[in-house]
Design a protein that fits this description.
heterodimer; A: alpha+beta; 2 domains; 11 helices; 4 strands; B: 225 residues; alpha/beta; four-stranded antiparallel β-sheet; 32% helix
């Protein structure tokens, strides 16, 4: 058993060395495509920070003064529920101070100055309103009515604030996702081609192995390992690239004027780490798929 | 040990390589397959080690119908056979020792078995003192000896040789035939395809003659004609 494993690793390494240019091409392509996949994740997450308060079709937010009394809050709630034809009362949500503060932490992730001004005590609480009607004028007229209620600090409409950004983020997400998928396919193809070339270079050995009765798996495994390693190395390179990219971006963004919204576009380190693990896994998977196809397809030499 | 029953092999749609061939080779026999190029000798060998499968008929090896063998069992079938070729098929980047060891290595034999078996078989073929040479540092006859050592190192039941003397001069051929004879004496069945008159006539063993894919003669202690 040990000699078989040693054999597989020795062969993998030999083949790696022999095919250095093709291997480099395959590794770099998978690295670039994985970097784009990673960037897609990060961009999406960054925009989510910005849009977190509008998640779930929320079109209007009624901010309640932090010193509002329980009666005032109850009154606002009942007024909101008094228009069940315009407002989806099922989806009406109230965020208390703790929940509102948690949300603010994400919105102001890159803007510690503004976040520092907020505390769980002084933060406004909020009602998230999902309208039933598609008519924006109807929602707008309601918002004017709510502004006058006692205890209401402000009413914000999605239309005024983040409609553009939301559309933009969807667009960017789709474009980067498609690009990275195409590049991933290219990476599979390149790894496939590298393995095919490696197998062709060693066709005499493969022929002898088959004649003396080596099993197909024994012949295949070193090649599959080679492809997997290429994908994995591509993954490691892309992780490095993503880290550099994210550091540069975060530095740039935190330099922005507080309260511009741009400062929300940062990603927590824990999220970055999990994206990196995902990239490594995708890399290994891509390499394994490319080489498995090649190793199965070209074993008849 | 090897039995063919009405075997027909067709390449493509019309080229009939072997037509309705039947014979039975008992254990420990030495058999020559003779005939001109393209008469189907190599195809018969390829049918026996299942590099090819017949369109009609059955091939039996060691009591097993190998055409019914699932693909996953083919490697095990091949481990009971040694193959020798006209062009040796040695790996040029490996030494004599490594070439022979390779055959054991890739079927998962442990290192201590390899370290014991390889020198024994190299001694048998008379290359014990050249085990660290590379194939292109050897003469043709020596390279063929390495290839025989590789085919024999796993002690196969059957040895298939396709024109093993095809690239060798008469003296060297004689040495190779002596070696195959010696292997045959150990109980290994030897099937050798050749169109080398001299070796066939010198050995006087069973001769199966082919002509355009058809067996035209099957004779004990035959000559080439």
């Amino acid at each position: 058993m040990f000699s078989r494993i040693a054999y597989a690793f020795r062969e993998t390494w030999e083949s790696f060395r022999r095919n250095i240019t093709l291997t480099a091409a395959a590794v770099l392509t998978s690295a670039v495509s994985l970097l784009l996949v990673g960037a897609t994740f990060l961009i999406q997450r960054a925009f989510e920070n910005l849009l977190v308060q509008w998640r779930g079709d929320v079109e209007m937010i009624v901010f309640v003064r932090s010193d509002a009394s329980a009666e005032q809050i109850a009154l606002i709630d009942s007024v909101l529920r008094a228009s069940p034809t315009i407002i989806d009362v099922e989806k009406l949500r109230y965020l208390n101070k703790t929940e509102s503060y948690e949300e603010a932490k994400r919105i102001f992730a890159g803007d510690p100055v503004t976040l520092g001004l907020l505390t769980p005590e002084t933060i406004p609480t909020q009602f998230k309103v999902v309208p039933l009607s598609d008519d924006p004028t109807l929602v707008r007229s309601l918002s004017d009515q709510y502004r006058t209620l006692p205890g209401v600090e402000a009413v914000a409409l999605a239309e005024d604030e983040f409609e553009v950004i939301s559309t933009l983020s969807n667009f960017i997400r789709v474009v980067t996702l498609i690009t990275s998928l195409v590049l991933l396919l290219v990476a599979v193809g390149l790894i496939w081609n590298t393995i095919r070339t490696a197998m062709f270079a060693r066709r005499r050995e493969i022929e002898v192995m088959k004649l003396v009765g080596a099993t197909n798996w024994f012949i295949r495994v070193p090649f599959m390992l080679e492809g997997l390693l290429q994908g994995l190395i591509g993954g490691v390179v892309s992780c490095g690239g993503l880290w550099l990219l994210n550091s540069a971006w975060t530095n740039g963004v935190t330099g922005f004027k507080p309260g511009t919204g741009i400062s929300s576009l940062v990603v927590p380190d824990s999220y970055l780490t999990s994206v990196m693990f995902i990239l490594l896994a995708i890399g290994a998977f891509v390499g394994a798929v490319g080489s498995a196809i090649a190793a199965t397809r070209f074993l008849d030499v | 040990m090897i039995r063919l029953e009405n075997v027909t092999k067709i390449y493509g749609t019309e080229t009939v390589a072997v037509r309705d061939a039947s014979f039975d080779i008992p254990k420990s026999q030495f058999v020559f397959l003779v005939g001109p190029s393209g008469s189907g000798k190599s195809t018969l060998l390829r049918l026996i080690n299942r590099q090819e499968q017949p369109e009609r008929g059955d091939v039996w090896v060691a009591g097993q119908n190998i055409n019914e063998l699932p693909a996953s069992r083919v490697p095990h079938l091949r481990r009971s056979m040694g193959n020798v070729f006209q062009d040796y098929k040695l790996l040029l980047n490996k030494t004599v020792f490594e070439n022979v060891a390779f055959a054991l290595e890739v079927i998962g034999k442990p290192r201590h078995v390899i370290a014991r078996q390889v020198p024994i078989v190299l001694d048998l073929v008379g290359l014990a003192d050249k085990q660290d040479r590379f194939p292109n540092q050897l003469s043709g006859g020596e390279q063929q000896r390495v290839s025989i050592a590789r085919a024999f190192v796993n002690r196969p039941l059957i040895m298939l040789a396709d024109e093993p003397t095809g690239n060798l001069d008469p003296n060297t051929s004689e040495g190779i035939m002596g070696l195959l004879d010696e292997i045959n004496q150990t109980g290994t069945t030897v099937v050798m395809a050749t169109h080398d008159h001299r070796v066939v006539n010198a050995m006087r063993r069973r001769v199966i003659q082919l002509d355009r894919g058809v067996i035209v003669r099957d004779q004990e202690r035959g000559v080439y004609e």
